[in-house]
Amino acid sequence: MKRGGKMVRTYGLYLVLILCISFFLPRFLPGSPLSVLDEATASQNMEAFPDTFREYYAPEKPEAVQFLLYLKHLLSGDLGYSLTGKRKVADMIGESLGYSLLLAGLAMTVSTCIGVWYGMRAGLKEGSSPVRLFPLILLQAVPVFLLAESLRLLFSYRLSWFPSRGAYSVGMHPSSEGFLLDVLYHMVLPLTVMILSEIPGIAVFTYNSTVRIKKQQFVRMAVYLNLTQNIIEKKYFFRNILPEILGKLSIQSISCVAGTMFVEAVFAYPGIGMLLRTATANRDYPLMQGILLTVCTLALVINAIFEFLIQQISRR
Amino acid sequence: MKKIWSRLSAVQRICAGICIFYFLAAAFGPIFSPFPPDDFSSPALLPPGRVHLLGTDEMGHDIFSMVLSGFRYTMLFSLTAALGSVSLGTVLAFASLYFPRIGRGINHLATVFLIIPDILLILFVAAFAAPTCTNTILSMIFFSWPRVFRIARSRLSACFSSNKVAYTMLIGGNMWDVIRKLWHDGYPVIGTLFMMQASRAVTYETTLAFFGLGDPLLKTWGRLIRSALNYENFFYDNTWCWYLLPAMICVVVYVAVLSVLVFDEGKV
Amino acid sequence: MIEIQGLSIFYGKRKLAYPDISVKKGEAVGIAGKSGCGKTSLFSFLLGELPDSAFSYERAELLGRDLSLWGMERFEKISYIPQFAQSALNPRMKVWEHIDAVLSACGRRGSGEAEELFQKLALSEELFSRYPSTLSGGQKQRIVIALAMLKEPELLFMDEPSSAIDFITLRRILEYIWSIKGTTTILMTAHQRPFLEKAVDRIVELSEGEKCWKSEM
């Protein structure tokens, strides 16, 4: 229970740090309209923005007040007003978050299963064989958006096997017939891209963990005791690599969320990635800041969950 | 130097050779460039031919020249960003171990940055701030030092608790004595970290360019890839073969080669 | 059970020559010699862990068959207790899980053999539900012996059972060895002479004077 308390305090600290980063970053960037480093140019830039922007950020007030105002807004769920969407940022993000979580969650689950299985298989083979991993390393070297565009080129345009954009066909509603199937159909390509981009990291890590355990003395003892291959794999290898794998998955999940956003941007999939694309293209600051805060908080939550899992598993 | 070469496997030697090629291409490539990369006086959208080895883009730039200039920019980004983040991360790692009280604070800060996806922060900075090359590099350094910090710290901490160093500190050795002792055990990690960061920097730059951020005037591979993807007939004709592929291959090979060099079996 | 004649093992430039070794059924034979004289290498050879280029012999038979004809199935008949017995337990498996694993590999269900063995080795049944990290060195050593004997092997190889443990554990292991002598064939190495002399029927010397260090290829 004491460990739990410590964890809560640590993550509380992290949350505060994230809020600070979210608050101070735009204010210390040269060229930003909220910049405190060059107030003259900043206030000049401000002229271009609508009143809602100025109301939300209140740049004329002292920094401390701004921060408290920011916190107050957050507590009431107000993330500001989008310049492009002309709606509340919180609403826009709320609608999109579900799709992103769906895509990222599915991708993570599938790629973990395949990645861990493949990595362990490769690691258990006799002798060391890093050559087997080179295709994976090559795959990992391709930036995820390039992978997305390439698959889109091949499978959507050249072969016309799958749709090239959106989460469902135009005109479909959640209550329409075959909606679920349509959603799944549209999800195939983005999901495949995500899975392909996540598997290498997990597989290579699992391989390394497995190889490391292979060298341990208690594994040799299992051979001497004539234990079955099944038991050796499950109880000797898997149980011993599990804490490390969970640590890796924790980091990988977050890069999966980031990767999902890029894939969504490519496939015009209505998740946070699409919002990010429009936000960066149009310099929609409130939307970008809202996205940053949401994703950072999400990352913190994911990390906390994995941290908790690792602690539970490591009880001995 | 000879010792390092002999410890590499055959595949790693090939990869090191490729890295050296990239470096040479960055240094001498533009000499072979038939056109200045920002010269768009040639006819647009020519397929590969004798004059334009890789054809031209929709504005009339020679693609081959742009790919060549990409070597320079890639080297610039990856070497400076790597140098900066590795220096910063290592110095902070050492400081956090030598001065344990601020060490905990730095550690927490680094952990937060590790939890947050760094590409997102870099994207954010690039969107908010003035789109200059310096800003991009600075933000890469600023947001990727935690990764270096974490790895350097765990390696250094093993060294710190070793008898050599504990003894040095016991007899009142100053900071420089400790650094000298640590360097002996620690420098291989620095090489690995450097290559790791160099490959990440290229991925960052390419992603930034994809989102239309970063300096629009620099003819980097990222920008080339983005123009190729934005070309209106990208999905319908075969232009991508000579427009997109060369830059894409350059990026992928660079990142893959560095990953292979960094790959150390059994090290997690 | 074991017949070895003219064995040589090569380490880079060094060559270790072994005397003829013959172990009959039910015997307890000890191999004595200074550290580094090739005691563990002998076991590595018998267990098939050395590459073909590292050894040569005139005759080497295990249970009547030439050594090169034995594969992994040798571990059904042989139990090896390595020098690293104290790090030989899986840190993520409780003691009873180790026992279960060995029994299921033999195709047997537990019916008191484990409890019996533990009793003979002066180990409490309470240890069943513990993780190896909570056990002492001596307990781990004896548990490994118990696990090895649970297989009911025909041959027991013990590599330096006397090193790195306390006197009381040593005594208990000695008593156990006496209790299984005659039913199990034992081949043991140790560098502590007094222990070896008490434990085995006869001793084979590996190093006579400086012989072990002098042979160069």
Automatic annotation (TrEMBL), chain B:
Subcellular compartments: Membrane
Keywords of this entry: Membrane, Transmembrane, Transmembrane helix
Topological relation to the membrane, as annotated: Multi-pass membrane protein
Parts of the chain that traverse the membrane: 12-32, 75-99, 111-130, 242-263
Keyword Heme belongs to the record: no
Presence of keyword Transmembrane helix: yes
PANTHER family reported for this sequence: OLIGOPEPTIDE ABC TRANSPORTER, PERMEASE PROTEIN, OPPC IN A BINDING PROTEIN-DEPENDENT TRANSPORT SYSTEM
Name this polypeptide is given: ABC transporter permease
Native species: Enterocloster hominis (ex Liu et al. 2021)
Automatic annotation (TrEMBL), chain C:
Keyword Flavoprotein: no
This protein's UniProt keywords: ATP-binding, Nucleotide-binding
Organism: Enterocloster hominis (ex Liu et al. 2021)
Classification via InterPro entries: AAA+_ATPase, ABC_transporter-like_ATP-bd, ABC_transporter-like_CS, ABC_transpr_LolD-like, P-loop_NTPase
Entry GO MF terms: ATP binding
Domain of life: Bacteria
UniProt domain ABC transporter: residue ranges: 1-217
Pfam families reported in the protein's UniProt record: ABC_tran (PF00005)
Protein name per Swiss-Prot or TrEMBL: ATP-binding cassette domain-containing protein
SUPFAM superfamilies cross-referenced by the UniProt entry: P-loop containing nucleoside triphosphate hydrolases
